[in-house]
Amino acid sequence: MRPLSLPKFRLLTKTWEYKKVYGQGKRLKGDQFTIIYTPNGRDENRLGVSVHGVKTAVKRNRIKRIIREFYRHNSLFIPLSVDIVFAVRNGFKPDSPTEVGQAVSKIIAKK
């Protein structure tokens, strides 16, 4: 497997997986999105992206792609065995993974 790939088993895909993270996870709130995370008991991290309030699927999917790209490049800096959900707020429309990185840096700096 390529070192920067993001295979499907590293993504949250089931409704119950999202519910578990939302129910048991800790939250880091920012202006553009909230990061929710919880231990998963596995040997790898898994990512989920939730986008609400964006009307068209094209725009929602673009936001998801940009966040996945940011995660793909920065997953080596995240501790193992964690499920992470990015819950995007209405109005956040990043143009690049760099914008997502800046928003994450602000959230972590507030913590």
Could you give a short description of this structure?
With 111 residues, the chain is of the alpha+beta class.
CATH top level is Alpha Beta
Corresponding CATH architecture = 2-Layer Sandwich
Percent range of helical residues: 25-40%
Shape: globular
Structural class by helix and strand composition? alpha+beta
The strand line-up of the biggest sheet is 1-2-4-3
Number of beta-strand segments: 4
Number of helices: 3
Distance between the termini: 34 Å
Radius of gyration, in Å, reads 13 Å
CATH topology, by name, is Ribosomal Protein S5, domain 2
Instruction: Report the mean per-residue pLDDT as an integer.
Output: 89
Order of helices and strands: HEEEHEH
Largest sheet properties: 4 strands, mixed
- Beta-strand level of the residues, as a percent range? 15-25%
Low-confidence stretches: none
Number of domains: 1
Report on the architecture of this protein:
With 111 residues, this protein is of the alpha+beta class. The chain has one domain: Ribosomal Protein S5, domain 2, CATH 3.30.230.10. Helices cover 38% and strands 22% of the residues. The protein is built from 3 helices and 4 strands. The protein has helices at residues 15-24, 57-74, 97-110, and strands spanning 26-29, 33-39, 46-51, 82-88. A 4-stranded mixed sheet has the order 1-2-4-3, with helices on both faces. α2 packs across α3. The longest helix is centred in the middle third of the chain and has 18 residues, at 57-74. The relative contact order is 0.24.
